[in-house]
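Problem 12. The chain below contains 95 residues. Write out its predicted structure in token notation.
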Amino acid sequence: MRLAKQPTPEQLHKVIDYLLSNSENVGKKFAEEAKINIRNARRDANKVVETEQKGGLMTEDEAEKAKEQVQDLLKQYETKIDEIIEKKRAEIMQV
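Solution.
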């Protein structure tokens, strides 16, 4: 019969630190990918606005307002992503 040796507190801390650092890196990676996708959507939306303006379907003022709205949406979603990552980081740190 074999008995498993209990890990020391130092060993447990090393394992926990390793797991936390890896999970934070994964979370940061997903957050950055999400932000990149949002920025790409902004770029595409701004291209549509510019095309509409050049085609005469939108005035310059309307185009600028549309671009501002797109930028505001981008900021809102980036903030939401940051909040989600912080919430997950806090959950992980509680463990």
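Discussion. The mean pLDDT is 83. Students who got a different answer should revisit the alignment rule from Section 12.3.
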